[in-house]
């Protein structure tokens, strides 16, 4: 089986290369949308806490919907193809970002924001210069989780006519070609692992993140 998988990679390298690019594009767009919306929602519910529990409950409910069911629900509204897959993946990616942003900001010691307020900082200055830097390590942990999850879930996009490495898995299943199925699955896992590692290395390169982590450790 292993020899058959590597033979497929060698003989159909252009096919798999195109699928990898499609997979990265679909997952990348979904990650960008989830990150932007998740940060905005997370910041808003941390600043205005009354609707926080309601919004978190709604996102939690959406997160529990099976991915195939979510895709099926969206098809009548957005059709089949990449657009529907991106919408579904973006919805699934919201929870880790919203939850970690909300948690990261809310676990900051109150005296830090009180000191900044006492020095004349505005609400926006406190948010961007105190709260977000301190919450950054927690937020980045959510980003890593979301990226890996999105890349993995992108494999089901082929069931609604979208591209990506799920095409190889779907083709392998429908033609009873186990090697093709395994080949697509292995590449999805590799893309997810490489992405996770790259984010980890990027996190280590950000002095902002390191300083925030040290301050959080001193708070504890």
TrEMBL record:
CDD domains: TM_PBP2. InterPro entries: ABC_transp_perm/SBD (IPR051204), MetI-like (IPR000515), MetI-like_sf (IPR035906). Residues 20-199 form the ABC transmembrane type-1 domain. Its main location: membrane. GO terms for cellular component: plasma membrane. It is found in: Cell membrane; Membrane. Gene3D superfamilies: MetI-like (1.10.3720.10). GO terms for biological process: glycine betaine transport; transmembrane transport. The chain crosses the membrane at residues 20-45, 57-78, 84-102, 134-160, 180-200. Keywords: Membrane, Transmembrane, Transmembrane helix, Transport. Belongs to the binding-protein-dependent transport system permease family. PANTHER family: GLYCINE BETAINE/L-PROLINE TRANSPORT SYSTEM PERMEASE PROTEIN PROW, OSMOPROTECTANT IMPORT PERMEASE PROTEIN OSMW. This is Choline transport system permease protein OpuBD. It comes from Eisenbergiella tayi. The gene is opuBD.
